[in-house]
Design brief:
The complex is a heterodimer of chains A (292) and B (271).
Chain A: E1 3-12, E2 20-30, E3 35-39, H1 46-53, E4 61-66, E5 69-70, H2 78-84, E6 85-88, H3 101-105, H4 107-111, H5 116-129, H6 134-137, H7 147-159, E7 165-169, H8 177-193, E8 197-201, H9 205-211, E9 214-219, E10 222-227, H10 229-233, H11 236-239, H12 248-258, H13 270-279, H14 282-291
Parallel strand pairs in A: 3-8, 3-9, 6-7, 7-8
Antiparallel strand pairs in A: 1-2, 1-4, 4-5, 9-10
Helix pairs in contact in A: 5-7
Chain B: H1 16-19, H2 22-38, H3 44-59, H4 63-71, H5 74-87, E1 93-97, E2 100-103, H6 104-130, H7 133-143, H8 154-184, H9 194-200, H10 202-225, H11 244-264
Antiparallel strand pairs in B: 1-2
Classes of the chains: A alpha/beta (292), B mainly alpha (271).
């Protein structure tokens, strides 16, 4: 069991006019090996929730156990926890600070107690994992790189210490379509190697539908759905009041349904959708019409 | 948390003080500062304290907020108090050793100075608690209007101040975010000696500067895109207007000054 939350609540700025309940009584468990998408409209508490996972926000009520570390205890082994739970923030390239890329990427490992040589080896292997030309880039200043490269370097900085759980807060925001795809594929590759559990916040429902095998849906700090993307997106009632929208694949399926073509429900990514359309026999029918 | 820094943060409630004209509030704070400096007789601080307490109560800003903003100056106050106690010899000597002397005059002066600093900060922070930065700079601009005659770019100064004030919370939020990101990479900000701690701030300061410059660039572009400064006499969305509240406030503050002067001179020998 990677993450276990029970009755997790959080309130910002207690006893001031800015008081706001961000999370109220959440219960869920995330198992090792899962890819979980956390979705919800802006201000629904997604970021607050994930920041609890490596104790960036201190637990105030409820219980939370991450990688067998109980976060409700007074003394949390912060370094141990944060080495296990890698957290990639929105626009991670804004946290680069060192004068060379290699120093920046090895910042994490050094903090987690690697010695200098080990840290540089870890940094180099992380850099090659994220797909940048290590030799070319490592002595450059991170500020000379392009936006896409900066994001890769920032991701390398998070994964250099080989976290078991990778938490990503909108990893693809602000990238071009190809860049988005590349980052998501990179994350899936990482999942196969050492970051077995991936937790991802995203506003892009297509990404969630395609990559996640489970979604947690937050609305106003409450957990309103916990299950597969298929179950969530195929029931329009689920989406009411959440400010969310169905992915394009599901939309196409609905449109086809209105035109009298029903597809099997298993079509959350473009490949499955294509298969489902072919399987429905509609194309054959059209070809037949054209032929006659 | 960085978010808890309270000095000069607007406290959003509706109150008599909040609704006053920012220009009048400014002038009254200046009058209050004058009153604090006029105090010669220690008892006059009772009048100042009472005045301030009533203003705080009327403004509906919680007392704890004001006390928190005083926390940051405790060190300065203690430092000046100690210097004055030990190095200012006048009046009856209570205790002495080598060159260090504690005298009645020194104690009195130390008390006066510490109280003065406390009341100055408490009173002036009240204006930022009750006035939005926007209203504050509008008021300042309006007060500095005469300077326009000698070609001081009053409006530009006001907008610079406005932007600076506006960006304080944004930059604080940014610090928060960057700190979190670096903490997630194992950075620790709260242990080690002074030098170690200063070095630990580098991973926060550099991204902060980079982003401040980026924001400044973007803001300049946005101002240009909306033709800022193309028209010489901009009109306002909210026009400042003085009301009965301001007259009442003026009378109240005038009463304070008279009272302080009265206490200073022992009520002109009338009592």
């Amino acid at each position: 069991m990677s993450i276990e939350a029970s009755n997790l609540s959080y309130t910002y700025s207690v006893k001031s006019p800015f008081e706001k309940t961000a999370l109220s009584a959440l219960n869920f468990t995330i198992k090792k090996g899962e890819t979980v998408g956390i979705i919800g409209s802006t201000g629904s508490g997604k970021s607050t929730l994930v920041q609890h996972f490596n104790a960036l926000i201190k637990l105030t009520s409820g219980k939370l156990v991450v990688c067998d570390i109980d976060l409700s205890l007074k003394k949390i082994p912060y370094k141990q926890l944060r080495a296990k739970v890698g957290m990639l923030f929105q626009y991670p390239e804004y946290q680069l600070f060192e004068d060379t890329v290699i120093k920046d990427v090895s910042f994490g490992p050094i903090n987690f107690g690697y010695d200098k040589e080990q840290a540089i080896i870890a940094a180099e292997s992380a850099l090659s994992l994220v797909g940048v030309d290590v030799k070319e880039v490592k002595m450059k200043s991170p500020f000379e790189l392009s936006g896409g490269e900066q994001r890769r370097v920032a991701i390398a900085g998070v994964i250099a210490s080989k976290p078991e759980i990778l938490v990503l807060d909108e990893p693809t925001s602000g990238l071009d379509p190809l860049g988005k795809r590349a980052i998501l594929n990179l994350i899936m590759d990482l999942k196969k190697s050492f970051c077995n559990t991936v937790i991802m916040i995203s506003h892009n429902m297509d990404e969630i539908a395609e990559y996640c095998d489970r979604v947690l849906v937050l609305n106003d700090g409450k957990l309103i759905f916990d299950g597969t993307p298929k179950d969530f997106f195929h029931n329009p009632l689920n989406l009411a009041d959440t400010g969310l929208k169905i992915p394009h694949t599901v939309e196409i399926r609905e449109l086809l349904k209105n035109k009298g073509v029903s597809l099997s429900s298993d079509c959350l990514n473009v490949f499955d959708l294509t298969e489902a359309i072919v399987a429905s026999g509609i194309i054959k029918k059209m070809e037949g019409k054209n032929g006659s | 948390m960085v978010r808890d820094v309270s000095f000069g943060q607007f406290y959003p409630v509706e109150s008599f003080v909040h609704k006053m004209d920012p220009r009048v509030k400014f002038l009254l704070v200046i009058a209050y500062v004058v009153a604090v400096f006029l105090v010669i007789n220690l008892y006059a601080f009772i009048a100042i304290f009472a005045w301030l307490l009533i203003v705080i109560l009327v403004s509906k800003v919680p007392l704890i907020k004001i006390l928190k903003s005083l926390k940051s100056i405790i060190f300065i106050v203690i430092f000046t108090a100690i210097l004055n106690v030990f190095f200012n010899a006048s009046g009856r000597v209570l205790w002495s050793w080598e060159k260090l002397v504690i005298s009645v005059g020194g104690l009195e002066l130390a008390a006066k100075l510490s109280l003065r600093i406390f009341f100055l900060v408490a009173g002036t922070s009240l204006i930022t608690f009750t006035t939005t930065p926007m209203a504050l700079t509008d008021g300042l601009e309006s007060l500095m209007y005469p300077l326009k005659l000698i070609k001081v770019p009053v409006h530009d100064l006001a907008i610079i101040m406005n932007i600076a004030l506006r960006f304080i919370p944004i930059l604080l939020e940014e610090v928060d975010k960057i700190m979190m990101a670096q903490k997630a990479r194992g950075a620790a900000f709260d242990n080690g000696g002074l030098i170690k701690r200063a070095r630990a701030l580098l991973p926060v300061l550099i991204p902060l500067f980079v982003s401040a410059f980026r924001r400044a660039d973007e803001l300049a572009l946005a101002l240009d895109a909306r033709c800022y400064n193309a028209t010489p006499n901009r009109t306002r969305y909210k026009v400042l207007k003085a009301s009965f509240r301001d007259i009442l406030g003026g009378i109240y503050t005038a009463a304070l000054i008279v009272l302080v002067l009265a206490v200073n001179s022992n009520f002109w020998g009338l009592i």
